[in-house]
Design brief:
By secondary structure, this protein is of the alpha/beta class. The chain folds into two domains: about 50 residues, no CATH class; about 200 residues, Vaccinia Virus protein VP39 (Rossmann fold), CATH 3.40.50.150. It is built from ten helices and nine strands. The protein has a seven-stranded mixed β-sheet. It has a two-stranded antiparallel ribbon with strand order 5-7. Strand 8 and strand 9 form a beta hairpin. Helix 1 packs antiparallel against helix 2, helix 1 packs across helix 3 and helix 5 crosses helix 6. The protein is globular, with a radius of gyration of 18 Å. The chain starts with a helix and ends with a strand.
Length: about 260
């Protein structure tokens, strides 16, 4: 099957999360089989994704703070606030540039925010608190938590201390809620309990609170089911992730922005 067809399948909500993830994986395996290695895979993937993506319009980029200028400001601010001792496997400033820029645009600056899956260190949470927000987070495999604002936990074993109402909930490239490039075996509970999971997330949001899902190829939740609890503002819209140090596109993310129904 041609890679363009597989990529469109991976990015289409007509297919199940498992089918989408498998289609994305097959692109990679077919590429390696044909080329004999994964050399230049990233360039191939980015070009293919650009052709097949459902990109934000310029109006949407400006409205939600996702134009290049705003995202660059977010990138710089993140980079300046990463402690040298908190080294992560991934470049945090690129990983969070779009979500941080979006949060800054749709908030006043004092909202209560929950991040589901903050990674090795709560870099964004700490920065948000520094800026005047009240931010909290959970992560199943953290390298550091304080058990006040950050906890080693997941949605199955959600901390009672965090069972509050939030203005914003963010899930940024979280395996248990987003489908990246494969179907992880560690998160079968989330896949089997998708309806209960989105209901729980909705219950944690204040009236008219927002849920931000940022992922690679799509969320595990169907659009139809999300509409039971949320008004859809953006659904699986593509935007590039940019390494502003090199002024180079490193990949693409899909953004879903939802507002809780009153």
């Amino acid at each position: 099957m041609k890679p363009e067809i597989l990529m469109r399948k991976a990015l289409s909500i007509k297919y199940s999360p498992k089918e989408r993830a498998e289609a994305f994986d097959k692109i990679y395996y077919d590429y390696v089989k044909e080329k004999g290695s994964d050399k230049n895979w990233d360039k191939f993937r980015i070009k293919l994704r650009q052709v097949c993506s459902n990109q934000l319009t310029d109006i949407q980029k400006n409205k939600f703070g996702l134009n290049k200028n705003n995202v660059k400001k977010a990138y710089i601010e993140l980079k300046q606030n990463i402690p040298k001792k908190n080294k992560s496997f991934f470049p945090v400033e690129i990983f969070y540039e779009n979500s941080f820029s979006l949060i800054k645009k749709i908030t006043k600056g004092d909202e209560k925010i929950l991040e589901i899956g903050f990674g090795d260190y709560p870099i964004l949470i700490n920065l948000l608190n520094k800026k005047g927000f009240s931010a909290f987070g959970i992560e199943p495999f953290p390298k550091a938590v304080d058990k006040v604002r950050t906890f080693k936990a997941n949605m199955k074993n959600f901390p009672k201390k965090l069972d509050q109402k939030y203005d914003i909930i963010l899930a940024n490239m979280v395996y248990s809620i987003n489908y990246m490039c494969h179907s992880p075996k560690k998160f079968q509970w989330e896949l089997k309990n998708r309806k209960g999971l989105i209901k729980k997330i909705s219950s944690l949001l204040d009236s008219e609170g927002c849920l931000i899902l940022i992922d690679d190829i799509g969320t595990i939740f169907s659009k139809k089911y999300l509409e039971k609890y949320f008004k859809i503002i953006l659904f699986e819209k593509d935007i590039p992730t940019i390494n502003f140090k090199k002024d180079k596109v490193e990949g693409y993310e899909r953004i879903t922005l939802l507002k809780k129904r009153g």
